[in-house]
Amino acid sequence: MGRAFILGAGASRFAGYPLALDLWPFVRDHSSGEVMAERRRRAVIPHIERILTVVPPAEHDRPNLEELFTLLDLAELGTSPLELVQLSWRTVRPQVMGMIAEAFIWHEVYLEAEIVYDQRPFRLGLDDRRVRLVLERWTRFVAPGDTIISFNWDLLHETALYRVNKWHYADGYGFVSADAPTGVQSPIKILKLHGSVNWAQQNEQDREPAIEQKGYFFPGAIDGPGIYQKAAGQWNEGRFLIIPTYLKDMASNTLLLSLWNQAADALIDATDWIVIGFQLHPADALARHLFGSALLRRMTTPRVTLVAPSGGGSNWQSFCANLSVTPARVRSSFEDWITAPRSGEAESS
Fold first, then answer.
1. Does the pLDDT value for residue 345 go beyond 70?
2. What pLDDT does 349 receive?
3. Can you tell me the mean pLDDT for 279-299?
């Protein structure tokens, strides 16, 4: 029985990935220049800007997409402001998925070039030495038998673990890759409950997605013939991501439903739950059900550690208190925690 690491956006922020309020400018401003991507950007950006005139953000250029997209989902159901019903959200939604995927893939391309290969195709403004240190300490800390349960779309953690032979795409995502080498098993599982920007599904019933860009992100891997066919001709390029909204429907995507079930099993078996940069918003009913039902089904209570800066972690603390669980509290960012000495890292909450 290994540990379960529960990752949110705070676990990737040190590498230049955005937190919630910075997601829209991050996605809007990243572009590869590829023809389909540019067509999609020209279609999506005016729609989102129109939506923001109806529901303006509290801070300039920092909209809360989770709240905004929830209102748009409700509008599709006829229970939101009438002005939003006219904004073609059903058409724009899959395009947003494709736009998110492109932005995150290209950020990882630039990050790999800068951090791994010491090149600068696009300066990210990061402390390269610090990023390398965090990844080195993190990949050393995670051990075979552990499970990473991620609510992020980015490729940061699997690429780092792949480079040190602690993770493999053959089955490390919780499904078997059709073009993986035979006889390979991943020492660590990474279950990405909101999807991943390098997965392409033919449709939401496709339980064996194509894993794209393996040749770049997982050196030594080769994309099998026809690997990119599932993405062809779709506005979302086959990316069926769970985009920010409180109305999450896992049942519509059989792959993600399977991953959520695997996550529940991992949480039931794990000796420790280590929560890193994941806020567990009160409106996130699916995530709260996942963790709550896993706690109730366990024979023993796991050791729960919350890693979040001062001011964060309150949602988890109240959630745990309702279930008679007392977590250990680490008042630190992920990067400070993982690079600090391991002894005496937590204080009782």
1. no
2. 43
3. 93
Gap between the Cα atoms of 218 and 206, Å rounded: 23
Write down the pLDDT at residue 85. Answer: 60
- Dmax over CA atoms of the chain, in Å, equals 56
Helices (H), the chain: 23-29, 35-54, 65-76, 82-85, 89-115, 128-141, 156-163, 214-217, 254-269, 285-297, 314-322, 334-339
Quote the radius of gyration of the chain (alpha carbons, Å): 20
pTM above 0.70, yes or no: yes
**Structural domain boundaries in the chain:** 4-344
Strands 303-308 and 328-331: what pairing? Answer: parallel
pLDDT per residue as tens digits for the range 244-286 = 988 888 888 999 999 999 999 999 999 999 999 999 999 899 9
User: CB 283: neighbour CB atoms within 10 A?
Assistant: 12
Extract the tokens encoding 305. Answer: 């550690």
Question: How far is Cα 199 from Cα 209, in angstroms, rounded to an integer?
Answer: 6
Whether the CB-CB separation of 188 and 163 falls below 8 Å is answered with no
